[in-house]
Amino acid sequence: MLSSFFVVNLMIPDDVYVHKTVEGDGSAFNELVQRHHAKIYGLACRMLGNPDDASDATQETFLEAFKSLPSFQFQSKFSTWLYRVAINTCQQHIRKSDSRGRTLMSYSNCLREQNRQYDSDFPERMVLKTERDGLIQAAIDQLPPKQRAVVVLFYAQNLKYREIALVLDCSEGTVASRLNTAIRNLKSMLKDL
Amino acid sequence: MNCEDFMTTINVNRLSSGLKLQENVELKQHLEACPKCQTEYDEMLQTVAVLESLRNPDPPPDLALKIQKQIAKEHRRSRLAFFASPLARLLAALKFNPHPALVNCTAMVFYLVLTVFLVKLTFFSEPDNSVHVLSPTKTVWRSAHVVTTSWATIRGIPVPMEESEQVTAEEMLIQER
Predict the structure, then answer these.
(1) Which residues in chain B are closer than 8 Å to A133, comparing Cβ atoms?
(2) Is the dihedral of CA A141, A143, A145, A151 positive or negative?
(3) How far is residue A87's CA from residue B48's CA, in Å, rounded to a whole number?
(4) How far is A61 from chain B (nearest CA, A)?
(5) Could you tell me if residue A130 is inside a domain?
(6) Closest-CA residue to A55 (of A44, A67, A46, A69)
(7) Is A186 among the domain residues?
(8) Cα–Cα distance between B10 and A34 in angstroms, integer?
(9) How far apart are CA A168 and CA A72, in angstroms?
(10) Chunked mean pLDDT (size 10), chain A, 193 residues
(11) Tens digit of pLDDT for each residue in A130-183?
(12) Any idea what DSSP says for residue B59?
């Protein structure tokens, strides 16, 4: 009974909850938070490279989305629109934050905590994976924000060119061009991994 | 095909989608003949493979709850604001959804105009005789004026000259104060 409820619940599209929220049902937005917070946190973590900033940015993203929901025109998927809000929030954080200096260490700490539960039997593997992820993140942090957004959306979030173009409000050609430039920039930094 | 053509033709989508070079004989031939492009191509493939191994970090367990609490707080606040702004309510009822900033600005202008109007009405309006005739203070002054005549009456009761003079004196004192 309970499992069938969850199956039915997951089948309900986001737009239904968006409509309910706009009509004044504040609890409907909770379902949207439950569905999308992990993806938005992942995006923020990769964009900002710092788990604390990522948590703040995720909260700000959902708050901003809740406030701006009446202006959502249903021309794209809710998740695409939410990604756009998240990217804007992250870029604001990048502009005003000095977190980039402490990125690598904080991110490594975060990953170390997460990997501990998976790799407790293989400490060497844990260290290697943490360092590797930390180095990839450090390399991504070196990219300009626009290229970073494309890389994160394409590789970490697995979005298609068309979806990235909608999120970033640019053409698919621009997405491809930015991604190519980003890969060439990252190539030398990730050569030894 | 030269090296420049090769590098513009090779794009990340091709590398990521697993198409590689098998379907393009021309690209493959250039790659076999040019060690520089071969190295470049291998490095790009390696970079793409590294990036494809990226996984999203898990969010803190209490993050969703934190966000939901914040949203509930904001929802309560927005409902209060909704009652405080009849303009926003009207626009919502008309299914006209302008940007919140526009609604806020319009509401602010509306309340500013309303405030100016009320302040002007309260403090800077010209006195109106018909209104003052009805006020108790002026009624007293009317009686004070009329007592100077011998035929004056208050509420229809004849007033002797001495009493009316005393009343006038008291009223004059009040005026002086």
Answers:
(1) 54
(2) negative
(3) 22
(4) 10
(5) no
(6) A44
(7) no
(8) 40
(9) 16
(10) 51 86 84 92 89 91 90 86 93 73 50 52 54 82 89 89 91 88 85 68
(11) 677 788 888 888 888 889 999 999 988 889 888 999 999 998 888 888 988 898
(12) P
Q: Which two tokens stand for residue B74?
A: 């904001």
Strands B157-158 and B153-154: antiparallel
Please state, for a pLDDT cut of 70, what percent of chain B lies above it. Answer: 53
Q: A residues 4-33 near B, CB within 8 Å?
A: 24, 26, 29-30, 33
Count interface pairs A-B at CB distance under 8 A. Answer: 112
Specify if A103 maps to a domain: no
Question: ipTM surpassing 0.85, yes or no?
Answer: no
Interface contact flag, A29 B71, Cβ < 8 Å: yes
Number of domains in chain A: 1
Q: Do A180 and B12 touch (CB under 8 A)?
A: yes
Asked whether residue A58 is assigned to any structural domain, the reply reads yes
Cβ(A29)–Cβ(A71) below 8 Å: no
Task: Flag if A186 and B51 touch (Cβ within 8 Å).
Answer: yes
Q: Count the residues in chain B.
A: 177
Residue ranges making up the domain that contains A9: 1-97
Element (H, E) at A147: helix A145-151
> Cβ–Cβ of B57/A114 closer than 8 Å?
yes
Chain B residues within an 8 Å CB radius of A68:
100
CATH number at residue A10: 1.10.1740.10
DSSP string, B107-173: HHHHHHHHHHHHHHHHHSPPP-HHHHHHSHHHHHHHHHHHTTSTT-EETTEE--HHHHHHHHHHHHH
> What pLDDT sits at residue B116?
93
- In angstroms, rounded to a whole number, what is the distance separating the alpha carbons of residues A26 and B22? 54
